[in-house]
Design goal:
The structure holds two protein chains of two kinds. In chain A, 34% of the residues lie in helices and 23% in strands. By secondary structure, chain A is α/β, with parallel strands linked by helices. Chain A folds into two domains: 117 residues, 3-Layer(aba) Sandwich (D-Maltodextrin-Binding Protein, domain 2); 115 residues, Periplasmic binding protein-like II (D-Maltodextrin-Binding Protein, domain 2). In chain A, strands 5, 6, 7, 8, 9, 10, 11 and 12 form an eight-stranded mixed sheet that branches. In chain B, a hairpin with a 5-residue loop joins strand 10 and strand 11. Helices cover 7% and strands 36% of the residues of chain B. Classes of the chains: A alpha/beta, B mainly beta.
């Protein structure tokens, strides 16, 4: 390379690299096509919105690989190289490398404010007789931590199980049951509770469930990439940090029930 | 007079002949009238008694070593091939795993060309729902028709000659987690089917469809009030623990029974004399055991029902309040056995909980319940009350590690069906030898809901061999012999009148052993692991053939069929840790192999 050419060539090369990285960079997100409030094929979920924010920060074109989020989701999507990122995962998820958390959610009690006074403790004596709806995880006969805690307190006969999968999202079904009076209280994960609880009448309370020994009720949520994709993980971490206020605004607008980390 | 006394009295040189005559007299597989044509194999278990016994005796202990491969056929699918091919009047029929393609092969022509092919086109969505690979356990022939189920909950009837669809009936919603993997049993114009998906909250049932129209004749739920379970005036269980009104509600808290599992994804048998249908129910789910105090009837047990109206005659619960995934859906072999006290009509049921149950099939009385594998989760069965004696130290407790749960979740054996030879009077049980450790795992996340999962790690049981084929002496209630296998034996067994037993291994060996002592006589390495059901038939040319599908998969083989990462020991619900070597030892496949003597 002649010295005469060098500066111009380097500039050209730099421009080429910059242009390719802008023009040709794609980011593929794996998501459930029908699982509001998280994601939906028509982009109505809050994880869709967060994906758009992050893709813009990375200067990448956003596309999706859709698959119902059931057993083996990460194996069949992220770890099958069909996408680059999963927008929502617990920070200590085993089968992915996660970014720092961008929110901490909490399990909540959902109930009609016109029928029940404030409810926030797993030891509230009213729980012995109220009709309580819980999601049934379905994997390994696991229960959600608050449902497990209720069982440990002998609260079983008045508990109604809602299978995780059906035509309507789990949050919609439990909230509808509270609203109609079919159950008195729903035990739901905050993002699902907040979104559905504020839609329709009467308005419902969604109060965080206080943690107890043996009953974790809050979980920090992050983005996940393949274990070896450390560069992408760092990029996403930076993007999350830079877009913090935008992401918070999205979570706020979807009424995601959060607690401070 | 007992058989033992008669044999002692006979001169030694007569002993063998007497033994054979005695066998024919003392132990008969049920009902000559229902026995298929000698050379045919019209349903996965061959007969309603579920013997998987072929009367063909051209292939013998003396000549089995000369068996040669005579035909192959690729199914075009690479998931677990658990089905039995069937043969009727010179045509072989077989169904693949999802997408459940049915093939009819013309055995009268060289190379067995395709007679027809039927593609039911099940919903792709079903693949993501099935718990343990997208298997199908086979088609059934009756009265000129082929009947089978699809993964997305359809039962379909085809014209056996043309492959033309006659009817299809959808009996469940894939979006609620329900699937169909079992092979229907067709008896007297009734198509008996059951559902899968208890882990998602599916409420189990057995349903009878009209074979000519596909319309429901009756449905018997496994949980709920007596009117749903079809318990009425005919119900006369042997044990007090099975008696009472509406036990399908009363043995659950609140309304937990409404999504209580007890699905019916295994085998069905039928006794024409008693007009009773026999089948097992799966474990209670999807509740955590702490959420469902009580016996959780009628899960993890056996039902006897009238064929005509589905009314229950008796029920026996092997595993009340099951905590270990011990489904009760394994095969029930119907045989008449000469015990010292007299001949009894029994069913033989090797259960996931590790016991071989020998049960009076007229009354539901347990005659014996004997371990066929190492068991730590219980300490025997009280024959007076019928109650299993659970070991409390293996019970699930939140936040603790429970080691050495034996048998592991797939049980002493899983779906893989045993065979019975009336000549040797032995039941040939293909099974695993696995235990597991359970501890509280890391945070899991499903459909946007976080929870703390369980880490389940399976491991070889005592001795280190992960599988076996055990020949079980029903009268003595003990093994006659057992062949240890390094891998779980996840294939069915076949017994023939040539005193041979055939089975396959998960690394692809297809084996013929001496039915009297287990000596290996012949083996052939197929292209993939074998998890299918071998059969034997007489071809249009008059020769005896033995056929099996090769194609690893199912729960045990999902690490290969589903490309799972065995570094994650909890993959395939913990099976991966027990089979870290399987991916090195076999690869995916989907191929029919047929063998004969030259």
């Amino acid at each position: 390379m002649s010295s005469r050419c060098r500066d111009g060539c380097v500039a050209l090369l730099a421009a080429f690299v910059a242009c390719t990285s802008v023009a040709a960079r794609d980011i593929v997100v794996c998501a459930d096509p029908d699982n509001l409030p998280y994601s939906s094929e028509d982009g109505r979920g809050f994880e869709n919105r967060i994906a758009e924010i992050v893709a813009a920060k990375l200067g990448a074109d956003l596309s999706y690989y859709w698959l119902p989020d059931r057993r083996g989701f990460l194996r069949k999507t992220l770890n099958a190289n069909l996408c680059d990122v999963v927008i929502g995962l617990p920070v200590d998820a085993e089968r992915a490398l996660t970014t720092p958390a961008y929110y901490r959610g909490t399990y909540v009690f959902v109930y009609r404010k016109d029928r029940l006074a404030r409810l926030s403790s797993l030891d509230d004596p009213r729980l012995a007789t109220l009709r309580i709806g819980v999601p049934l995880v379905g994997n390994d006969a696991a229960a959600t931590p608050p449902a497990q805690a209720l069982a440990a307190r002998g609260v079983v006969a008045n508990v109604v199980g809602f299978p995780m999968f059906a035509a309507e999202p789990i949050g919609a079904r439990i909230v509808d049951a509270v609203r109609s009076g079919a159950i008195d209280v729903g035990v739901l994960w905050g993002p699902q509770a907040g979104y559905f609880a504020r839609r329709g009448e009467p308005s419902l309370a969604a109060t965080p469930i206080a943690a107890k020994p043996g009953a974790t009720t809050t979980f920090a949520i992050a983005m996940g990439v393949r274990r070896q994709d450390q560069a992408l993980q760092r990029e996403l971490a930076r993007a999350i940090s830079e877009a913090r206020s935008q992401i918070d605004a999205v979570l706020e607008s979807y009424a995601v029930v959060r607690v401070t980390p | 007079m007992t058989w033992d006394r008669r044999r002692r009295a006979a001169p030694p040189r007569c002993a063998r002949a007497m033994a054979l005559i005695g066998a024919a007299v003392a132990v008969t597989a049920v009902h000559a009238a229902d026995t298929p044509a000698p050379g045919d194999w019209p349903m996965p278990a061959r007969d309603f008694a579920s013997t998987r016994y072929s009367e063909l005796a051209d292939i013998t202990k003396a000549n089995a070593s000369g068996l040669e491969l005579v035909l192959t056929f690729s199914t075009g699918v690479l998931r677990g091939h658990e089905a039995a091919p069937i043969v009727v009047a010179g045509t072989m029929y077989l169904v693949t795993p999802y997408p459940n393609v049915v093939y009819a092969l013309d055995l009268s022509q060289p190379g067995a060309p395709l007679r027809w092919k039927f593609e039911p086109k099940p919903e792709a969505y079903a693949q993501g729902v099935a718990c343990c690979d997208v298997v199908n356990r086979g088609v059934t022939y009756a009265s000129g028709r082929i009947f089978f189920n699809t993964l997305d909950n359809q039962t379909i009837a085809l014209d056996a000659t043309s492959g033309k669809e006659l009817w299809r009936y959808r009996s469940g919603d894939i979006r609620s987690g329900e699937t169909r993997t079992m092979a229907p049993l067709v008896v007297k114009g009734r198509v008996l089917i059951g559902n899968s998906g208890g882990e998602y909250g599916v409420r189990g049932w057995l349903t009878a469809l009209d074979a000519s129209t596909g319309k429901e004749a009756w449905r018997a739920y496994s949980t709920g009030p007596d009117r749903d379970v079809l318990i009425g005036a005919d119900y006369a269980p042997f044990y007090a623990k099975e008696k009472g009104a509406n036990l399908g509600v009363a043995t659950w808290p609140g309304e937990a029974w409404k999504i209580g599992g007890g699905t019916v994804w295994g085998w069905i048998s039928y006794d024409a004399d008693l007009d009773l249908v026999y089948y097992g129910t799966a474990n209670p789910g999807p509740w955590n055991s702490a959420q469902r105090p009580g016996d959780n009837k009628f899960t993890s047990g056996l039902f006897a029902r009238n064929l005509s109206n589905g009314q229950a005659r008796w029920f026996y619960q092997m595993s009340p309040h099951d905590e270990f995934d011990y489904d009760g859906v394994n095969e029930n072999i119907l045989i008449d056995v000469a015990f010292p006290g007299g001949t009894r009509k029994v069913l033989v049921h090797p259960d996931r909980n590790g016991y071989v149950y020998v049960i009076d099939r007229a009354t539901g009385e347990v005659i014996s319940a004997t371990p066929f594998v190492h068991i730590t989760t219980s300490n025997g069965v009280d024959l007076a009350t019928g109650a299993i004696k659970y070991a409390p130290e293996k019970s699930q407790r939140s936040g603790t590690v429970i080691r050495d749960i034996c048998p592991a979740s797939p049980g002493g054996k899983d779906w893989q069906p045993s065979a019975y030879s009336p000549r040797t009077r032995l039941v040939y049980i293909p099974h695993q030898n696995l235990c597991q450790d359970e501890e509280v795992g890391q945070t899991s996340y499903i459909a946007g809901t976080p929870y703390v999962g369980a880490n389940v790690k399976m491991k070889p049981g005592p001795g280190g061999d992960r599988g076996a084929l055990t020949a079980w002496d029903v009268v003595a209630a003990r093994p006659a012999w057992s062949i240890k296998e390094d891998l779980p034996v996840w294939s069915g067994a076949l017994a023939t009148a040539g005193d041979l037993v055939f089975y396959g291994t998960m690394d692809g060996w297809f084996k013929a052993v001496d039915a009297t002592n287990g000596t290996l006589l012949w083996q052939f390495k197929t292209g993939s692991g074998i998890v299918g059901q071998p059969i034997s038939y007489r071809g249009p040319d008059g020769k005896q053939y033995v056929a099996v599908l090769s194609g690893v998969g199912g729960w045990a083989g999902a690490v290969v069929a589903g490309d799972l990462d065995t570094r994650d020991g909890t993959a395939a619900l913990g099976f991966a840790s027990a089979l870290p070597d399987l991916k090195r030892r076999t690869t995916k496949g989907g191929m029919l192999y047929v063998f004969a003597l030259p």
